Automatic annotation (TrEMBL):
<keyword id="KW-0611">Plant defense</keyword>
<dbReference type="InterPro" id="IPR032675">
    <property type="entry name" value="LRR_dom_sf"/>
</dbReference>
<protein>
    <submittedName>
        <fullName>NBS-LRR disease resistance protein</fullName>
    </submittedName>
</protein>
<dbReference type="GO" id="GO:0006952">
    <property type="term" value="P:defense response"/>
</dbReference>
Length: 145
């Protein structure tokens, strides 16, 4: 599929990509996903997640990221997603940190980090250097793997 085939997705609520080994990006910066509530990206080896997610800033509630070996950062616009309730990040070994303004996500109820060694080191409950940045989140699970 080309980007033009994804041009009019204003009513899309759930989007999942799995095993897309050649995918380098999902959408361009101007893509409007104004109804997107859930995004799941699983095993897309080349994907790095730039600021494409900004098109769902007012609607995204669940972000699931699994097995993205090249993912190094999450987009800063993530911290402006006021409806975001759930983030699950698994098996992203190069992911170095979470956005610094994560405390702005007052609706965030669940954060799970699994198999991300740098994130575990930095956000380990009670001992990690940045634990206090996420300690306010009601349900956190940070597992080294």
């Amino acid at each position: 599929m080309s980007l033009t085939e994804f041009a009019n997705l204003s009513h899309l609520q759930v989007l999942a990509f799995r095993d897309c080994d050649n995918m380098k990006f999902l959408f361009n910066e101007t893509q409007q996903l104004s109804s997107l509530e859930t995004l799941s990206v699983h095993s897309c080896g080349l994907l790095t997640l730039p600021g494409w997610i900004g098109g769902a800033v007012d609607t995204l509630e669940t972000l699931l990221i699994y097995d993205l070996p090249n993912l190094k950062t999450l987009p800063e616009c993530l911290t402006t997603m006021t409806r975001l309730k759930r983030i699950h990040i698994s098996d992203c070994p190069q992911l170095l940190s979470l956005p610094s303004d994560l405390y702005r996500l007052t609706a965030l109820e669940y954060l799970c980090i699994y198999g991300c060694p740098e994130l575990y080191r930095k956000y380990e409950p009670l001992y990690g250097e940045y634990w206090l940045m996420i300690a306010h989140i009601q349900n956190t699970s940070i597992i080294e793997a």
